[in-house]
Amino acid sequence: MSIAKRIRELMSVEGCGVFPVEEVRSDKLLFELGFDSLRFMELVVLIEETFAIAFPDQLLEVGATTKVSDIVSAVEGCLKGC
Amino acid sequence: MISAWNIHSLLDQLSRHTGICILLPDEQPISYQRLYQEVVENRNALDLLNYAERADKQVLILDVSIGWRAIPVILAALEKRIIVIPVDSLHSPRQMAVITDSFPGEPVIGDGQIDQQGRLRPDQIQRKDIKYFHDMIDVAFILYTSGTTGRPKGVMLTHENIWSNVNAILHYFTPRQDDRVFVIRPLTTASAITGEVLPSLIQGASMYVKPVDQQPLRTASLMGELRGTILCTTPTVALHLASLARRKSNVQPRLLILSGEPLRQDVWKKIREAFEDAEIWNVYGLTEASPRISCCKQIDQAADVNCVGRPLVGVNVKVIDESGETVTDGHSGELVMAGPNVMKGYFNEPEWTALKLKDGWLHTGDRVTMRDGQIYVHGRMDHMIIRSGVNIDPYEVEASILQHPQVTEAMAFGVSDSDMRVRLHVWVVADVEPSDLHRFLIEQRIDSRLWPDVIERKERLPKTSSGKLVRNASNT
Description:
The structure holds 2 protein chains of 2 kinds. Chain A has helices at about 5-10, 35-50, 70-80. By secondary structure, chain A is mainly α. Chain A starts with a helix and ends with a helix. Chain B contains 12 helices and 25 strands. In chain B, the strands form 6 sheets. In chain B, strands 8, 9, 10, 11, 12, 13, 14, 15, 16, 18, 19 and 20 form a 12-stranded mixed beta sheet that branches. In chain B, strands 4-3-5 form a 3-stranded parallel beta sheet, with helices on both faces. A 3-stranded antiparallel beta sheet of chain B has the order 6-7-17. The interface of A and B includes residues 57, 60 and 63 of A.
């Protein structure tokens, strides 16, 4: 399974999100998917456990414009750098 | 013996403190001397704005999304005896709208009205039809909490409430001048104001005040960079931070103060493992008690995680059964308390006040037992849901979701899950998919504290023969 697909699963109702995985598209904002600060904390922990990585510090500061694709790129970059 | 602090002695102390008051990442910190100057300037600005000191009280609606800059405004307002109403435009825009509607003509003092130094900008503040609140003598703050029918309740806390609680807190919590206190709860909460900011200012400690738009995990990372020594937060947030602390060796506070929700044994164990060098306290209170009621400084055995310690100085407590009779040690019942920290009442809600305050006793709604003078908290007597330390009235969630035209009935409740968290569930009778309802709440800008974790469609909701919802049936 691709990294992007796995992350979308984690962000869906199958992970710690509230929407079906088909609605977790890469152009969606985290806010649109119901990620407030607490749910985002859950996501970070889930991603760290799933991929055995340390989530990059600069991405701990998600903003109103952070998209699913930003999270995917960050994790991919992190895995390449490991 | 600790002297009795009030706003005047605090400001006097502020003028004499040296060192850093506010820590800022990537910026020069704010010294105590400078903070004191900002308070003096704000006092003058409030005079210019006709907030005259008088017994007929006036309100100042303060948007705390400005972060630490709210502090010099709060202190100046406390000295001028102006009632502060903190609001959070970022996380609770709906709640803010309800509050501002209650005070027509009063401006919201926020980013445009306060400069980067924390000084009020009188030229940017327009006050129309100044209203005086003659029945709010001595009120210092109105703090809003989750209320029924979508309407938040304004808890009126007097100056005596606040300062008696600060003085009682200082009997057990005395941050040092070399401490760096991380204030991550919003300044809309009594915990942050009375429990963290005011004691830290009195003691001359340094503080980092989390901007409201900053993610808690980023704050944790900053704890390492800024060498934070004291963190006050909820068990749920501490649990999340635990995973970060494990890989960042410099995120190691000397003291972790937990409050806001019952502490679970499995949660406590994880927190204990992650913050192995920290003292961990479990403190208890509620906004209506300004907020602090008790503190447990030794959670040595996992079996005692429900213990929140002995009542603070001046606080009387008892445990009562359904008929109002005091129960004996070891028996469970509702905690009621009396003392100088008990709120004046709810703003414009005499019926609610009468339900909560009876003969001077505040009915907390918390189910507890007492053993050897110590309080053990087990949960709620009512249907209030506590998710991550935030109290959520199920009626408020239901009112939000019932705004959708295709929802005919709704019932909200909390479920404690295997992931050591409380989830907000909602059962609905509706002609619409759950994902559409999640989207509706987000798009309608319903405050995120009311967003459900799980929405399920049902044919019908469980009811009594008289048609009343059976809430207990689902709350397991």
